Amino acid sequence: MPENTYPTPARTLEHELEVKKSRFIARAGRVESREQALAFVDRAMTDFPDARHHCWAYLIGDPASATTAAMSDAGEPSGTAGKPILNVIQHKRIGDVIVVVIRYFGGIKLGAGGLVRAYAGATQKVLAELPLAAHEPHTRCRLALDFAQEQPLRHWAAQHQATVEAVAYGEGVTLTLRLPEGAVAALRQFAQARGIRLETD
């Protein structure tokens, strides 16, 4: 891969593993901030409200020099869940990724070693099947435009993997887009053709 690129999840995926009647449901997906990671965990708790544990780990940024990583045992014995999940993520060298492993207790205690193997195994399974995409460096652009141009710009953004981060309405519209650096030239062309003012960070 070119410099500044690394593999990231292309979509969210789930995989289930059963160990001595306990169910371990591993859900992996893409996150780019702690806020997004915690929202991903909250969603798993909402989807599986009756599970006994929702253990997780995430790694944000280039896996070779991650900007941030965190983990939680979520009530399991210390070191038996979050750390094994994170270890597998680091071994796979995937960035901007979170794995939540949801556990339904089956009535048979697994012991510390059994828990480590189960959480690592569930993570290994879901990451082995997870579709990956190359991360591209992103940039932010602010655009000043007329109200009539907002919908065409949003349509352009949706087709170029750009996300709308902020919108302010006044005499016109000021809109902040986050987009892959490779799409900036196309955005500049789009803006010039419509008389939209563009500023990049």
From TrEMBL:
UPF0029 domain sequence ranges: 143-190
Species assigned in the record: Alkalilimnicola ehrlichii (strain ATCC BAA-1101 / DSM 17681 / MLHE-1)
GO BP terms, alphabetized: regulation of translational initiation
Name of the protein in question: YigZ family protein
Domain Impact N-terminal: from-to ranges: 20-127
GO molecular function term, any single one: guanyl ribonucleotide binding
This protein's GO CC annotations: cytoplasm
InterPro entries reported for this sequence: EFG_III/V, Impact, Impact_N, Impact_N_sf, Ribosomal_Su5_D2-typ_SF, UPF0029_Impact_C, UPF0029_Impact_CS
Family membership: Belongs to the IMPACT family.
Pfam families associated with the record: DUF1949 (PF09186), Impact_N (PF01205)
Alphabetized PANTHER family for the sequence: IMPACT FAMILY MEMBER YIGZ (PTHR16301:SF20), IMPACT-RELATED (PTHR16301)
